[in-house]
Amino acid sequence: MARAGPTTLHENSMTKLSTTPDGKIFDSELTNIFSIMIICLNLKERETQRGTFSFTKTYPYSFQVANALSVLKVLKFTVEQSKTVTSMEYSINPELGFALLKKFYSGHFLHAPADRTRSEPNHSVALQPTPKGTCILQNFAERVGMDVKNYPPILFSNFNSMYLLKFDRDPTSDKILYSKYLINFIFITMMGDSPRVWSPSAKAESIPPIKRKLKLGMWQDGESSDEDSNLNSISSTNSNIYITNLKNHYKISDSNQEIGLPDFRNASTSSIPTTTIIDSESVAKFPFHHKYFTNPESDSHVQYYISSSGVRVFENKQYYFEKGGGHVNIPYSFTGKAILQWLCDCTEIYNPNQGIGIANLLLKLQLVEPIISKGSKSNCDSFVPARNAYYKLSKLGETICHWNKPEDDKRRPKEYEINSEFNGIGTGNLGDSQASKVSVNLATTLKDPGLRLLFKEHLESEFCVENLQVYQLLKEFHSQVKTCRIIYLKSKESDNSSILSMLNKKLNDLETMACQVYVNFLAEDAPHVINIDFELRKQAIEVMDKIEDTEDDETAIERRFHTLEKKSKVFFGVSKSIYALLEDDSLPKFLESKIFNDAMATLDALSI
């Protein structure tokens, strides 16, 4: 890998863990450490060689705890993007390292393939990334601009089958930002389009095509020459990788199976991805799947490998109500454990307590209700995440749930126009029965965590989510510039060394943010280039391509601050341009989209 040299625009090095004011490690920092650990472990699909015999069963992409602790002790990762070099380096002692492994395990990043019901790791068991952990790894690789050709092999395997429901977080406290509709959206997604009733004869669920999951370009049909291959960009992440080379290297096929890492036909373990025939089509079967994998009574540490699969439910389960009710069959019911299991497997929460918090909000908004029967541990006061705590849909939950509704009835909105008003969104008290009136415009869409999540999904389907990403980054950038300006003015009034140190750190952070925005979205060779005016892009290139004299003298901080102000002024123009594009082009399409119409139908139901 090339080293930083005279043409390097910025070199950023991160060596300390980011923490909240109360000392808690940011969840985003945990995902960074986890992802770098998996990359540094260099996990492979392991096979038993022909002609050899072993009593030890092997599992693909697995590793020993001792190896992970050794890697964590000296954890290094470097990624280059155009003229920037970002390095992450941590030194984590074995005690903290094992505590982190426990966090990764409880957050369902990892599981023990040889002991699927194990609740926590120990030093003697092999560990393996889960579908959630693999998705987190992909999100990290995309976020830091990692070259697709350098992706870990597990990302090209059937382990990479999950789309996680993501949440925005408070930049200071790291707490999840909620709104009333966000909770409703989580509820609808968790329930799925129809009840997921377990049966030992149930067909395996197909997983998404790997080329779609990795956002790869369209595959060529038929044979192509080497000269033709360089005309086919593999993805927006790296336009210099040829489709043909990648397909050959990872044995990616154009069939429904989509991926076949090194010749699974000769593998010796049942944990390696296979295929099954479903409705006359060959589809990939998930590596962990087995007959009782999705049984609601299962104690498996992980139970979901695709997020579109709803929570596991019982059908016509009989409950006994002691106070005169007698025996009653409830059409569909589910356990508190099943709810927490889905939230831990299929969303971007990093510890079970966050999942319990979301489940409590489902109760508070009266989307589910406890079954107060003999043998059930559920109650009306708080959510109980136990296998013998039973719940069912409330009347409101039945109204907005998609179960047993015709496809065209699932998205049956009223007519809404830009700036029209509707009920149901609120970022304050989630239990407030007085639904606030909110105008459907870009400002309120971006402010509400639920609508913002829907807007992002719409933009992803339109292949222009980078516009929202760069706008949010620039919004945070300008907020931090204001803070930096205050610190700078204080430093002018005093020669206090602590203030100068604070200013220097803030300048380093902002220079890094500016370079990330520029390299990823504004540079001529940016992997996620955005559509802005030519003159505006020219200004951004001029202000960013100027390599500053890094000689440390009395005026160094002064020069850096004024350069930052120039960058901020140009970036503000970019931010205004992107906002106008989102407002004039993307928002009207969003308001006409199925996903928004579905939201409106749900809000209509809530106002009944």
UniProtKB/TrEMBL annotation:
A single Gene Ontology biological process assigned to it is: negative regulation of signal transduction
User: In its keyword annotation, does this UniProt entry include Transmembrane helix?
Assistant: no
Provide the RGS domain boundaries: 441-600
Q: Which UniProt keywords apply?
A: Signal transduction inhibitor
Domain DEP, residue spans = 307-395
**Which residues lie in coiled coils?**
none
UniProt signal peptide: none
What is an example of a Pfam family matching this protein?
RGS
Family matches, as InterPro entries? DEP_dom, RGS, RGS1/SST2-like_Fungal-DR, RGS_sf, RGS_subdomain_2, WH-like_DNA-bd_sf, WH_DNA-bd_sf
Q: List, alphabetically, the PROSITE patterns matched.
A: DEP, RGS
Does the record carry Nucleotide-binding as a key word?
no
Official protein name in the record: Protein Sst2p
